[in-house]
Amino acid sequence: MRSRGIGPNRICYTAAIKACGKGGRWETALDLFREMRDRDIKPGIVSYNTAISACGQCGQWEKALLLLREMGGDGIAPDVVTYSAAISACEKGGQWNRALELLGEMHRRRLMPNVKSYSAAMSACEKGGRWKEALELLREMRVSGIEPNEYTYNAAVGACFKRSRYKEAMGAIREGQADEIYPIFAFERYSEWDLHGLSFPESCMLLTQALSSAAARSESYESASFWDIAVITGRGSVLRDNVVRFLSERSGPEMKMMEENDGAFLVTVEALRNWAESSRLEDFKRAFQYEEE
């Protein structure tokens, strides 16, 4: 463009800043943003939002907040997209307290946070192990009429799980099941419990619920009428091994690895029955503060 005597305009700069953010080149993104000013091209709100997002994608939360504060000098009021990008930057930078401050600032400006704003703030709380704050945000969403999604539930469950607040994590799981975010694993004649797409905390809590429920039926079925439970964790053995180790350390049932599939394991009917008839089941429930509904 410049070789033809045509200078880039604001749209061109904004597109370039966005590309730099996606490529992890936040410094170049900021250089382009400053170059706009040097060329007397006034950044608009989309330019600011894009630059804040570029910094946030690279964990540069301080730079993102600096841009947020500069907007007023250009006479531009931040909008929901602006704050969501800034909150996301704080989340990636591990700044849960600043993420919550920005959420509060949105309310004071009478800007209604959206699901992205809440999800980013809750993810920041999860990383900081702030389970009370995460659950309060989940409650606040419902009061505001904003429907939680898989990301908000993932953060809520993860925050509680990280602090061993298993009872609260199970409460979030059950809310997510009511919202059809999480599956309800039933013990049937042929049971295949698929954990694809679920995090380690979500997987552990869903299996805690499902195994406890299945054990409660141990006296009402005949072994010949039921097949072993197949638990699918996905490709690779990392999640499988971690889940099995975690549950075993808390007195879970005997779990059998599947040699032909490193992304799955079995809970045999016999193992389930033996577990239900032993004291280990009650130890398991106590470890997770588990209560039947």
UniProtKB/TrEMBL annotation:
The species this protein was found in: Trieres chinensis (Marine centric diatom)
PPR repeat placement: 9-43, 44-78, 79-113, 114-148
Keyword Nucleus assigned: no
Lineage: superkingdom: Eukaryota
Name this polypeptide is given: Smr domain-containing protein
Keywords, comma-separated and alphabetical: Repeat
